[in-house]
Amino acid sequence: MTALRVTIDTTSGLAPWRQIYDQIERMIAGGTLAAGTRLPPIRQLARDLGLASGTVARVYRELETMDLVTTARAKGTVVTEPAKRTRPEALLTAGATRFAAFAHDLGVGEDAAVDAVRAAYARVADS
Fold first, then answer.
1. Burial bucket for residue 65 (CB in 10 Å: 0-12, 13-18, 19+)
2. Which residues of the chain have pLDDT under 50?
3. Which end of the chain is more exposed for a tag (fewer CB within 10 A), N or C?
4. What pLDDT is recorded for position 93?
5. Which among 65, 81, 97 is the end of a domain?
6. Total count of domains within the chain
7. What is the rounded distance in angstroms from the CA atom of residue 20 to the CA atom of residue 5?
8. Are residues 62 and 109 in the same domain?
9. What are the start-end ranges of the H helices in the chain?
């Protein structure tokens, strides 16, 4: 099992389960969490992050729905092989859809939303 480094930003306004999901999803997509990597047990990760077990259980269910992990009683929760995963394009589309809905709910126009994505992308690329 690898040490899973996730953080919760209580000031972000984003639900803790979503923050954890997004971080693990990026680690898997980026190769930081390789196929076969075992994630910590739900109770352990919940305890480490100071969250309810149900919050982490939701993250693991969502990851499993996207074919990023599989859970088996004897093995625990394990990162799947790339061939078994949802294509990166589908993940990108899902993320873009979530962001578009968020921007729409805030009442932000399309141009402002696109500008925010460009600025965020530039910050990430520079880091």
1. exposed
2. none
3. C
4. 87
5. 81
6. 2
7. 10
8. no
9. 16-30, 42-49, 53-65, 88-106, 110-126
Q: Which two tokens stand for residue 32?
A: 């930081």
DSSP letters along 75-109, please?
TEEEEPPGGGSPPHHHHHHHHHHHHHHHHHHHT--
Q: What is the residue whose two structure tokens read 């898997």? A: 28
First to last CA, the chain: 27
Return the structure tokens found at 61: 């269910």
Contact 2, 38 (CB under 8 A): yes
User: In this predicted structure, what is the pLDDT of residue 85?
Assistant: 65
Q: How far is CA 70 from the centre of its chain?
A: 15
Q: How far apart, in whole angstroms, are the C-alpha atoms of residue 104 and residue 78?
A: 35
- Per residue in 65-97, pLDDT (tens digit) is 888 999 988 889 999 988 666 677 877 888 899
The answer on 49 and 92 residing in a single domain is no
- 3-state DSSP assignment of residue 60: helix
Q: Distance between CA 51 and CA 29 in Å, rounded?
A: 25
